[in-house]
Amino acid sequence: MLASLIGFLGDFDLAEEAAKEAFAIAAERWPRDGVPANPGGWLQTTARNRAIDRIRRDRTLAAKTRLLEVPDTVDDDDLEETIFADERLELIFTCCHPALAVDAQVALTLRTLGGLSTDEIARAFLVPEPTMAQRLVRAKHKIAAAGIPFRVPPAHLLPDRLVAVLAVVYLVFNEGYGGRGDLAAEAIRLGQALAELMPDEPEVLGLLALMLLHDARREARIRDGELVLLRDQDRALWNDVQIEAGQIALDRALALQGHGPYVVQAAIASLHAEQPVDWPQIAALYGELARLTRSPVVELNRAVAVAEAEGPERGIALVDRLDLGEYQYFHSTRAELLRRLDRLDEARTAYTRALALTTTGHERRFLEKRLAELADR
Amino acid sequence: MKYALLIYSDDAPDAWAKLSEAEQNALMGEYFAISELPQTFGGAQLQPASTATTVQVDGGNTLTTDGPFAETKEALGGFYLVEADDLDAALEIAARIPAARMGGSVEVRPLVER
């Protein structure tokens, strides 16, 4: 019984204490009320409940730190039982505290909230398991030693901290979007949990909507191992249920007056899913997003939308104002616009630059195909 | 919990000399206010790193060298010792230290408590 309790609680002292209490209660009640039908199960449940009460009561850091110690063997149902909704929320803010390195934030979040094993996380991020284990241990040690609090941050800190939490979830999603579907699903699950925990935060809903809308097109995005551009995708392969769920989350975010970066990106993703695509509206939203983020990558996306809405001349004029020399998509976007403008030599040069910078197989093949097409002209 | 707030800033003393007397007084007032906080239980301002002497003992021989342990552009210029509920509370005090917004950095380190 003790071993199972330790496994469940991840803490030896707490388990021992809880077992003692359970026996004490049994000694008092069984003679009075009779021995229960399943004495072992009764003791187990009582001890667990005692321990949970204790964790709840004892809001000191030491007790909360135990939440980080998710045993590798515990199944999901047990996890849900151990960690209550408000504690899950505190936990994610702890895991994504800016005093921890971002890779440690991501790993801790996947471990403690996603329930992934250390080995699974290590494989997802292509590092050896001992490296990931060490990263987790170091992060947990820092939480305890540096006194990173277990709580939802107070109002004056919340906006910044929420940005960090959402960034971690989106990072997990993007890691999955590049090919690891299970990580994308995990990110969506985390997003859904956050949306349940913070139903009135528009940016949380915005991020959830954004992930659902992007992920809904997963099946259509790759055909025979090749990358398919949005305009060429087979819409029958889109996941309508996910698009619907994304749309609901987005509508709710908009109803809450949301206009932060994730809400705007979700609105753009939603417009992309409509037919015909409203490019002028998408360009306007990218303008809004550029204002919010001051990101040249967003400007690049705006240039693409402007090119669709007003023609490639207007698009290339915007692209050429940007300084993104080492960014693969800067060159591939320029190449595409130059190709449409029949400036073929320049297009070839730009495709070649993009090809040199690309790291994924299907993007490489896509660019090689484009170059081969240009060679015939 | 107890924390040390270690203040690192540009070691060149002329940056300070360039400030007007009123600006210097205002900054000193800010530093003084932090040392007067109920959470603060210690601290000191250090003379510039150019006044430092470093000592090492190797096989019973004392080796004394001029200068700080490490020559860096930013040097430890002072510290506070504070008592705070958690890291967030310590970080809030650290963010009030003028050096943090004047190109310097404040390192927040928990103390070993025995």
From the structure above, extract its key features.
heterodimer, A: about 375 residues, mainly alpha, two-stranded antiparallel sheet, 21 helices, about 70% helix, elongated, B: about 110 residues, alpha+beta, four-stranded antiparallel sheet, two-stranded antiparallel ribbon, 4 helices, about 30% helix
Which helices and strands appear, and what pairs or packs with what?
The complex is a heterodimer of chains A (377) and B (114).
Chain A lengths: L1 H8 L2 H22 L5 H19 L3 H5 L10 H7 L2 H11 L6 H11 L5 H7 L4 H18 L11 H20 L3 H17 L4 H14 L2 H4 E2 L2 E2 L12 H16 L5 H12 L6 H15 L2 H15 L1 H8 L8 H13 L3 H14 L3 H15 L2
Antiparallel strand pairs in A: 1-2
Helix pairs in contact in A: 1-2, 1-3, 2-3, 7-9, 7-10, 8-9, 10-11, 10-12, 11-12, 12-14, 12-15, 14-15, 15-16, 16-17, 17-18, 18-19, 19-20, 20-21
Chain B lengths: L1 E9 L3 H4 L3 H15 L4 E6 L7 E6 L2 E6 L7 E10 L3 H10 L1 H4 L3 E6 L4
Antiparallel strand pairs in B: 1-5, 1-6, 2-5, 3-4
Verbal overview:
The complex is a heterodimer of chains A (377) and B (114). Chain A is elongated. Chain A is mainly α and 377 residues long. The longest helix of chain A has 22 residues, at 12-33. In chain A, 72% of the residues lie in helices and 1% in strands. Chain A has a two-stranded antiparallel ribbon with strand order 1-2. Chain B has 114 residues and is of the alpha+beta class. Chain B is 29% helix and 38% strand. Chain B is built from four helices and six strands. In chain B, strand 3 (53-58) and strand 4 form a beta hairpin. Chain B is flat. The model of chain B has no long low-confidence stretch (mean pLDDT 92).
Number of beta-strand segments of chain B = 6
Distance between the termini of chain A: 76 Å
How much is the radius of gyration of chain B in Å? 16 Å
**H and E string of chain A:** HHHHHHHHHHHHHEEHHHHHHHH
Of all chain pairs, the largest interface belongs to: A-B, 10 and 11 residues
Shape of chain B: flat
How much of the residues of chain A is beta strand, in percent?
A: under 5%
The string of secondary-structure elements of chain B, in order, is EHHEEEEHHE
User: Low-confidence runs of chain A (pLDDT<50, min 5 residues)?
Assistant: 74-82
As a percent range, the share of helical residues of chain A equals over 70%
Sheet/helix structural class of chain A: mainly alpha
Strand order of the largest sheet of chain A: 1-2
Ranges of chain B with pLDDT <50 over ≥5 residues?
none
| Mean pLDDT figure of chain B | 92
Radius of gyration of chain A: 25 Å
**Approximate shape of chain A:** elongated
Number of helices of chain A: 21
Mean pLDDT of chain A: 84
